Model the fold of this input.
Amino acid sequence: MKKIILCAAVALTVIACGNGNTPKQETTPTDTTKTATDTTAQAQYFGAKITEEGAIALAELKGAMGEKKELSTKVMGEVEAVCQKKGCWMNIKNAEGESMRVTFKDYAFFMPMDCSGKTAIVEGMAKIEETSIADLKEYAKDDNQSKEAIAAIKEPKKELVFEASGVILK
Done:
């Protein structure tokens, strides 16, 4: 009798684990792709499925926004820094060294903490916002900045920020 119960339990476990109905989480990297020009380049996708098509360089974003306070767009830049606690934000920069903080819509996905130096294509909403002193200090802590650098933050900062619904890392 014990053998029958054991066999039934094993069979149910195999069936339950292999039924293919397990939902896939979109917060993890999905399939990698290779470009035609560089067979070693791989792309990772996070959040909503997006494409590279129509992405503008970060340097062009301010011009594209004009007088608008918000703009739905797709932007490309180099990852400069990533939250070292859990990957909940990243900074991307342009060739001139200007950077922009990117957060992720509804806190639904995170970036790998070792993605600095990679190219990111982000799709979502660019906004001009004032970042509070408390938030600036928290970002500095997350970036492992020195206590002196954190203490030197004394004023809020009006800046261009981005809330991404999807990200491609290359």
User: Anything to note?
Assistant: The first strand starts at residue 44 and ends at 47. The helical segments are 2-17, 58-65, 133-142, 147-151. The two ends are 56 Å apart (CA to CA).
